[in-house]
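Record 1 of the preview.
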Amino acid sequence: MPATLSQKTPLAKLYGRDSDRYLELLAKFPLRPIRTEDELDAATVVIHELIDQDTRTTAEDDYLGVLSDLVEQYEEVHYPMEEVTDAEMLAYLMEIQGRTQTDVARGAKIAASTVSEVLSGKRKLNRAQIGKLARYFHVGPGVFTFDG
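->
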């Protein structure tokens, strides 16, 4: 029997024509707790493949979200990280992506003075700024700590 789903199944109702793609992703890496380094490596490959696509379907976005959560759960246990400040995270993202304060200010549409003050520890990020920076750097907003 082919891998296609009847239009009556819940998966087909949810994703329509993209339900087959969802099943392909499940076959490539099942959505279950990650238990080994090899599984972590395999999950990371799938995540990067999905992130590198120009566009994703809803099915791919949903799969990516759940798989990312599973990777995060594994890494929290096996690679606990000490907390970093928003200034440290911003500086790190700028460094690894080769961005200047001016690049970030323009690209994220945040005042240059704000970027400078955050980096110097004189100012904290608000929710709107975190959202803009997350989109600009293509990271989840959770990499920043919202202190209110």
